[in-house]
Design a protein that fits this description.
three-stranded antiparallel sheet; alpha/beta; Rossmann fold; about 15% strand
């Protein structure tokens, strides 16, 4: 029995209808919001920004004033408000506390912690760091405090503690361009823990001198967040190993996008 003839237009429409769900499932979240940590600013995200932007992601950096935890959370939410759809929220170091609090924002659909803190409600990163002290915590005089209560890392120790795997000139510049952080930002208890309700991913910097790598593991395991360990990486892992960091962010965007379809 001969098969009925089908027009080219009808055949094409059928193929497109069949392929549409597959295409939708594979589409990742496109908006990425990057939050820096204490004593630095958003410019450190440039290598990660360039990789993700080159792959078609819409990437925004938050510039926190570091004048209070509330002000820093507000700065992150302000950028989230500007997104045109769902977003992956990424935090480095102290930025992890910020995204934990700000991540309850309705546009946030996933969190990525990069060598970062992830306290629970009622906790603050200062108290947790004392339970698992880092090299920084054991180095007398490393953290300086101005008369009006702003902290910074001793410039001569910054390259060794914060960025030993960055070029000497770059680490030296960052040591001299620090954003001073109000002392209270490290001791403000959180009122929300977005990792309890939002899917999360983590990156452990294997040679982190600022946050104990074991504390990073504790955070991610508690949050049931899959994570990678970048062996030998310093606290500046987002600058020294941007390919690995961008890959985790891209994975988060892809996995959340697939789950939404």
């Amino acid at each position: 029995m001969p098969f009925p003839r089908v027009s080219a237009a009808t055949l094409l429409a059928s193929l497109l209808a069949f392929a549409a769900p597959v295409s939708a499932i594979a589409e990742p979240i496109k908006n990425i919001v990057l939050v820096h940590g204490a004593w630095v600013d958003g410019s450190g995200w440039k290598p990660v920004y360039e990789i993700l932007s080159g792959k078609g992601f819409h990437v925004s950096m938050v510039q926190e004033p570091e004048t209070s935890f509330a002000n820093d959370v507000a700065a992150a939410k302000r950028v989230l408000d500007m997104q045109d759809g769902p977003a992956i929220l990424v935090g480095h170091s102290y930025g992890g506390s910020i995204i934990t609090e700000a991540g309850v924002h309705p546009k946030v659909v996933g969190l990525v912690y990069v060598a970062a803190h992830a306290p629970d409600v009622g906790e603050d990163e200062g108290m947790l760091s004392k339970k698992m002290p880092s090299v920084l915590g054991k180095t007398a005089g490393a953290i300086k405090v101005t008369p009006d209560g702003f902290t910074y890392l001793a410039p001569d120790l910054f390259p060794k503690l914060f960025a030993p795997d960055l070029p000497k000139e770059q680490a030296g510049f960052e040591a001299r361009s620090q954003v001073l952080a109000k002392k209270e930002v490290f001791s403000t208890p959180l009122t929300a823990a977005a990792w309890k309700s939002k899917p999360s991913w983590g990156i452990v910097a294997g040679n982190d001198q600022i946050i104990n790598p074991d504390l990073e593991r504790f955070y991610y395991e508690r949050a049931k967040a899959p994570f990678i360990v970048v062996e030998g990486a310093s606290h500046s892992v987002y600058e020294s190993h941007p390919v690995q960091v961008a890959a985790v962010i891209e994975e988060a965007a892809r996995d959340v996008g697939e789950a939404a379809n």
